[in-house]
Amino acid sequence: MSDFLPEKVGPYDVLGPLATGGMAEVYLARTTGPGGFEKQVVLKRIAKKLLGEEKARVMFCDEARLQALLNHQNIVQIYDFGVQEGDFFIVMEYVPGCSLRWLIDRTRQNEAFLPLGLSLRIAADILSGLDHAHNLHDLRGQPVDMIHRDISPVNILLSKSGIAKLIDFGVAKSELQRQLTQAGVLKGKFPYMAPEQMAGGVFDHRVDLFSVGVCLWEMLTGRRLFRFKNNNQVVRAILMGNYPPPSAYRSDLPASIDRLLHRALTLEPDNRFQTASVFQMECESLMHRLGLSANSATFSNYLNTVLNDPDSNNWPKSLRAQAARHDNDEQTDPELFPVSTLISMDSSGDHFVSSDSAPSFSSEETTADPIATVKYVWVAKILSMAVLAPVALFAAPIRLVLMLFPRWQEQETYELPRLKKKTWTSGDY
Question: How many CA atoms lie within 13 A of 207 on its CB side?
Fold first, then answer.
């Protein structure tokens, strides 16, 4: 966090720091009024090192303008947007609870799994919020065509009241943005990025649904689906599209859960869930068919029991939880990786789960997941060599990418260790 801690920003009293990233700093703040009125809020502002930079200011204003249009219980609300001595700030809803990333990691440390019903409930909540965002219209009635592009467990808050909320629209893409995304630049986190998003061409709201699928897989297994030494291996694994079913790591999961995730994580977008509402309804239908109790009351009871565990001295209280960040979590803001770095990055990146190691809850995973704002100048070369049709028909070219780059051919398929002889087949769904 910046050494500079303001006592007051606009009319808001700053209570303490929450988190920092490459683009922004986040604080817990309070607003007061007559008659003893007091309300805690979260205050976000441009990082001090970026003050005065026009690009950072435009991106920050874009985020505020987009999020102001969102009004849904599963999306953190924005209350105010202001400027003080040239320093822009966003005031947002304060959500006591924890981040999904923290809950997954803590559950794994306890050698347990998240309840199936709770995992489906969280996914359904986020999909409900996404359905609102994807179908948003501006104040003139024009479609916004919003895509979040950065859905991951650190961007999902779990409130003590039993509601999951999506945060961080800092890299969201929409028709309202005045500054278009630079051609060939990817924004988001590699381990949660859809294959067509990595292809560097045109993509749509279905990339968000793929990301939700990855989050759900990780909720069910307590593992990172894409955890490797470097971004090169993450890209290869996602583009290969050969992901193990969650039941390979959790024997109590029914085949219907495998089928759900198979569809959510299918390589070709046209074979996935086409809208967030359809994905949400399938999650809720599964809960009903499996007889799972996963309403907001049971969600709240479970989470409050977890947060009030006296043996969990390191569990996040409301300050740290609202930030939805940990020092070892996915980074908050994108960094720029040149192509040469992407292709030859050394082992300083994410930890690799070796193919001969058994699934285990004994080891800690503390390395940061890579974040991508990556310029893919090689995409044009690949597309021209493949003589591609529109990117919607990208499945075959993706495999051609792997053939054109021998370095990406170190293994033919992507497999996590010890799969209990159960894999998906074309007849599963």
Answer: 30
> Is 274 a domain residue?
yes
CA 210 from chain center: how many Å? 10
* Residue 336 maps to a domain: yes
Structural domain total, the chain: 2
Tokens for 54? 């026009």
How far is Cα 43 from Cα 362, in angstroms, rounded to an integer? 37
Mean pLDDT of 87-111: 92
Residue 153 lies in a domain: yes
The token pair at 233 is 């291996």
149 and 23 in a common domain: no
Which structural domain range is residue 71 located in? 8-92
Catalytic site residue from 62, 105, 125, 150 = 150
- Tens digit of each residue's pLDDT (9 = 90 or more) over 151-203: 999 999 999 999 999 998 755 565 554 434 444 445 668 889 899 888 777 88
User: Nearest CA to 159 among 84, 100, 229?
Assistant: 100
Let me know whether 108 and 66 are in one domain.
no
For residue 407, count other CB atoms closer than 10 A to its CB: 10
Same domain, 293 and 274: yes
Q: Any residues with CB less than 8 A from the CB of 276 and at least 6 apart, and which? A: 127, 128, 130, 131, 134, 205, 208, 209, 212
Kindly state the tokens that stand for 30.
């309070």
Q: Are residues 59 and 120 in the same domain?
A: no
Residue 187: predicted pLDDT: 64
DSSP conformation letters of 265-332: T-SSGGGS-SSHHHHHHHHHHHHHHTT---SHHHHHHHHHHHHT-TT-TTS--HHHHHHT--TTS--S
Which sign does the torsion angle of CA 404, 408, 410, 415 carry? negative
Active site residue 258: no
Model confidence pLDDT, tens digit, residues 387-397 = 334 434 444 45
Handedness of CA 353, 357, 358, 364 (dihedral sign): negative
Neighbours of 250 (CB within 10 A): 17
